[in-house]
Design goal:
CATH superfamily of the largest domain: FAD/NAD(P)-binding domain
Oligomer: single chain
Radius of gyration: 21 Å
Number of helices: 9
Bound molecules: flavin-adenine dinucleotide
Largest sheet: 8 strands, mixed
Shape: globular
């Protein structure tokens, strides 16, 4: 492949133009840093495009505190950040509080959830079938539910679009079609990257390459516990207001958008880097619809798609910090929670590379 020399050198070079790379670039740029992003395909068209945009981990009490701390930091700041991005760029990421309903959880799970809520001061209410019916008349009858009213959602493609525009307007090079095939190291220090024989020098390289992150650093002898986990979604074209709240049952969820569209997600598949959509996934998701809101099937299915989550074997804790040779950093492995955790992990990574006081203890996210 021959590509043109995009830039010669930069201080911070981010490998991967998904949400994590773009958020990291934005925070570094806000701090006055010299930063560029290289992307093998098109900016924001992989997992960050495919995701549902729920601004909460699913069943948050099941995760380690290190995940909760990142989630809470981002949950508090996303509304203002999205407002700011919309004002700057004219692209509204459509953050809105739509709440999260979780019907029919076993009693011990409900207990764990309420204890978690008390510990972290995050409101969760237990509601009966009558209140559930009042809130969402089109849901199938369930004996009880947990209700997390504060949970928000955003539309991933819009968030990515807004970030992309803000970076371009502030002069950050976003270089597409640049597939990093080598990170160059000399005398134990990162020197830059190479793609198709074209070299860009950089003092620090930050790997935000999602499901591909392990491949990007493998040549350096660095092993990252990150691998792709495919997720498929269905999109129904329902009428606005048919469903107002995100609803989650046994790992599957419905996400209603403002325009009436409803996302049904998602599968968890170990299929390598194969992104093919399948009839069996469609059946699985329709099975979830039958359990959650069978009336939804009166509406047309507009689309089915898939994305590759950066799965990590680290209990859902992303890797954020310095890995391998001097000057090499990683911000990856967010698995099912890249949107909700990404804002805080980008800030934490920026604090670390800039030598600032970090927003939280970085130890749980480091190579250890
Ligand atoms: C179906 C589905 C539903 C989801 N729902 C939610 C949700 O509701 N809430 C939530 O918080 N999260 C959700 N997620 C997870 C979230 O989308 C991901 O964790 C997040 O998008 C990861 O972002 P990323 O930037 O690390 O990865 P990506 O968006 O995949 O970006 C990585 C980028 O790196 C590029 N790249 C890779 N290798 C190279 C290379 N060698 N050179 C240059 N570029 C390279 C890729 O092309 C890609 O664009 C969901 C994911 C899926 C698939």
């Amino acid at each position: 492949m021959s590509i043109e020399q995009p830039i010669n050198s930069v201080e911070f070079l981010i490998v991967g133009g998904g949400l994590i790379g773009l958020l990291t670039a934005r925070i570094l740029k806000d701090a006055g840093a010299d930063v560029a992003v290289v992307e093998k395909g098109k900016i924001g068209k992989e997992s960050s495009w495919a995701g549902g945009g729920i601004i909460s981990p699913l069943y948050p009490w099941r995760y380690p505190d290190a995940v909760t701390r990142l989630a809470l930091w981002g949950q508090e700041r996303y509304p203002k950040f999205c407002e700011q991005l919309a004002a700057e760029t004219g692209v509204d990421p459509e953050w809105r509080q739509s709440g999260l309903l979780m019907p029919n959880l076993p009693v011990d799970e409900q207990r764990s959830a309420l204890e978690w809520a008390k510990q972290f001061g995050y409101p969760i209410e237990s509601i009966d079938s009558h209140k559930l019916k009042m809130l969402e008349p089109h849901l199938k009858e369930q004996p009880s539910a947990l209700w997390m009213e504060s949970v928000g959602q955003i539309r991933n493609p819009r968030l990515v679009q807004a970030l992309k525009r803000s970076l371009v307007e502030s002069g950050v090079p976003l270089i597409e079609g640049f597939n990093v095939d080598e990170i160059i190291v000399a005398n134990g220090r990162v020197q830059g990257v190479e793609a198709g024989g074209v070299r860009v020098s950089a003092k620090r390289v930050i790997v935000c390459s999602g499901a591909w992150s392990a491949n990007v650093v493998r040549g350096l002898g660095v092993e990252l516990p990150i691998s792709p986990v495919k997720g498929q979604m269905l999109l129904f074209k329902a009428t606005p207001g048919f469903l107002k709240r995100i609803t989650l049952l046994e790992g599957h969820y419905l996400i209603p958008r403002r325009d009436g569209r409803i996302l049904v997600g998602s599968t968890l598949e170990n299929a390598g880097f194969n992104k093919e959509i399948t009839a069996s996934a469609k059946d699985e998701l329709l099975g979830a619809v039958a359990e959650l809101a069978p009336e939804l099937t009166q509406f047309e299915i507009e689309r089915q798609w898939s994305g590759l989550r950066p799965g990590s074997s680290n209990a859902g804790i992303p890797l954020v910090g310095s890995y391998g040779p001097e000057g090499l950093f990683v911000n990856s492995g967010h698995f099912r929670n890249g949107v909700v955790l990404g804002y805080a992990s980008a800030r934490l990574l920026a604090d670390l590379v800039l030598g600032r006081e970090p927003i939280m203890d970085p130890a749980p996210y480091s190579a250890g």
